[in-house]
Amino acid sequence: MITFRLVDAETYVPISGGQLRVTDEKTQQVLPVEYDSISRRFSVSVLPGTSLNSVAWASGYLSTRMRLSNLNSVQELTIKLIKPKPSMLVVKVFATTIRQPLASAVVVMTSRITGKKEQFTLPAGRLERTFTEPDDLDIQVSADGYTSVSRRLMIDVPPSGKLVEFDAELDKQTLGLVIWAIDNRTNKVVPQARFTLINPGGMSPVTLNAGSEAGQVIAKLTEKGTYQLTTRASGYEESIRAVAIENEQNPVMVRLIAKPPVMDVQPLSISSRLKSIGSKVSGPPAFALSSVKPTTFVDLETGKRIQLNRIYFDQSSPVLRPESYAELDELAAALTLHSSLQIEIRGHTDNQGDFELNTKLSRDRCQSVIDYLIRKGVEKSRLKAVGRGPLDPLAPNNNEENRKKNRRVEFVVL
Q1: pTM of whole model > 0.70?
Q2: For 121, 225, 375, 401, which has the most beta carbons within 10 A of its beta carbon?
Q3: How many Cα atoms are found within 13 Å in the side-chain-facing hemisphere of 25?
Q4: Strand order in the sheet with 239-245
Q5: Are residues 388 and 296 in the same domain?
C-alpha cells in the first residue's frame, strides 16, 4: 500500500481538492486511487517490485510528476505543489542621471507576440506591470522636452516568478533656432543685428549677435514655449515679437523698418500752426514734423474717438508687430507737439471666446501701445490704457468681416 499526501510547497499545509493519477510503469495502466477526506491522503495498492509514475495537481498550483521504482513495502510519500508566481516588470524614468526621477513620462509598450499596444503615464516616474505569461516587448519611453529611449525586453515567467527592471535615462532635448533680420523695404539681410531672447519661464535674457555677412544666428534651446524676441540694429527701429519654439528646428526671420532721417524742426508762428491743423484743438496748437504727414492726427478735439488703423499685433498676443511703428511714430510726434494733451488708449475685441480673457488682451495691447509711446519720449502721466474687450462693437459679431471691424485700437483726447 502506497499513500500520498499533497501539500503546499511553501507552507506544507495539506491541499484540499487535489487530484492524483497513478500509472503502472510496466503495463501503462492507470491504477485505482482512493481518497480519504478525513486524513486528506490518497492510497494505491500495488504488488511488490512495481514501478509507478504519478501526476498530482490542484487548482492554482503547477502539476508535479514523480517516478517511484521497485516498491517493496508500505510507504507514505509527500508531494509538494508549487503556486506559480507572476513575473514583474519595473520601468523607472530619470532625467539625465539616475539620481533624478522624471515625472510625467510616457511609456508605450507593444507586444511582439499578441500585437497589443498599451500606453501609460508615469506621474512619479515609475511603472510596475505583472505578467503571468511570457512576452516579447518593444518599450518606448518619452517625456516632453526630452529625447526618447527604446528597448526590447523578453519577459520570462518561471514558477518562482522573475523581476525585470528597465532604468530609462532621458537626455534634455535641444531645439535648434536660426534667426536672421532683413530690411523690410529691400529684403536684404541686415548683417549686424543683435537679438535678445527672453523665456516666459523666467530664464535670464540671452543676447545673440549676428557676426557674419549672412546675418544668421544659430542657437540651441532646451525649453519649448513662447519666447520674446527683441531685435536691434543700427539705423533701424527696434522690433519686439513673440516666437513659438515647438519643433526640432525653428527658423525665424525678422523684418526691420529703417528709421526715418533726422531733420531739424523749426517752430512755426501761431497763425501758421492754426492753418496747418485746420481747426482748434484743446491745449497748444500743433505744428507739423517733417516725419509726420500734415493731415495725420490733426482734428484732436476733446472727447472725439480716433481709430488707429495701422496697428498690428501677433495673433492672440499683446506683442506689437513692426508694421505698427509708422503710425505710432506719427502719434508720438503729434503728442510731442501738443505737449499738454492727455489721451486714453482703448482696446476692443470681438465677442469670440472668454470675456475676461478678451478684456485682458485688449488692455494688454493698449499697454503695449503706451509702452511704445513712452519709449518715444511721451510722458507716462499723459497716457491711460483701458481694455473694453467686446463691450463696444462697431458692427454685429455675426461674420468674420464684421468681427474684424470690432478688433481695433483707438484713442480719445481727455
Answers
A1: no
A2: 225
A3: 14
A4: 206-209, 194-198, 225-232, 239-245
A5: yes
